Amino acid sequence: xxxxxxxxxxxxxxxxxxxxxxxxxxxxxxxxxxxxxxxxxxxxxxxxxxxxxxxxxxxxxxxxxxxxxxxxxxxxxxxxxxxxxxxxxxxxxxxxxxxxxxxxxxxxxxxxxxxxxxxxxxxxxxxxxxxxxxxxxxxxxxx
Length: 143
What we know:
Elements: E1 16-21, H1 28-35, E2 43-46, H2 52-62, E3 66-69, H3 74-77, H4 81-92, E4 97-101, H5 109-120, E5 125-129, E6 132-136
Parallel strand pairs: 1-2, 1-4, 2-3, 4-5
Antiparallel strand pairs: 5-6
Helix pairs in contact: 1-2, 4-5
């Protein structure tokens, strides 16, 4: 029997998109193309890092979406701040969709960590790169 988690409830009324990705990501057009597919009552959630996160926040505001940021608290937690931030986003954001913007097939450390957390929670991730789009299934579907 498949476990259903709050972050991936099919009964969610409005989209809550968690965005993760490369700090080097600079393709505004591709982010806008993906976000434009969602209705006006959408919320975009991101970790406030430079690159994909901030671009998604900027475009989401242009589209009239609500934006929720989870900045890492580097001064308080040091090197663990990014990991703790990702764990908080995975468990507290109530996301309904996840978009990962990254060209590296290994997704980079921070993005890969976020993707693993989400997939362990039973949710697929849409990985967008300049080579194409790939759906990464939840881990339980791989068993």
